[in-house]
Write a structure and sequence with these properties.
The chain has 114 residues and is mainly beta. 0% of the residues lie in helices and 54% in strands.
Length: 114
């Protein structure tokens, strides 16, 4: 069994910042990719950012320059620093971990509104 515990979501005004965290625990022997996806109401889930074990990152175009993904391999934890948030960033954010299988977090709500 693998558990992913997310934290850091909430309500923020446009232009504000939030930091998401996701810690993986349980029967994990090797983690490869880690990342974040999001799903807004009425839309499909989309990739936000991913990071490989060695730290190679990938971002969707709409968050480049504003979001930064990082990971702590010793803690099996991935982070997403979100700056200059916009109302269109409002969504449920899901942590993703690639090990022997793909694992998903329960989701954390991010709402950007004045």
């Amino acid at each position: 069994q693998v558990q992913l515990v997310e934290s850091g979501g909430g309500l923020v005004q446009p232009g504000g910042s939030l930091r998401l965290s996701c810690a993986a625990s349980g029967s994990i022997f090797s983690i490869y990719g880690m990342g974040w996806y999001r799903q807004a109401p009425g839309k499909e889930r989309e990739l936000v950012a991913t990071i490989t074990f060695r730290g190679v990152t990938k971002y969707t175009d709409s968050v480049k320059g504003r979001f930064t993904i990082s990971r702590d391999n010793a803690k099996n934890t991935v982070y997403l620093q979100m700056n200059s948030l916009k109302p269109e960033d409002t969504a449920v954010y899901y942590c993703w971990v690639q090990a022997r299988h793909d694992y998903w977090g329960q989701g954390t709500q991010v709402t950007v509104s004045s």
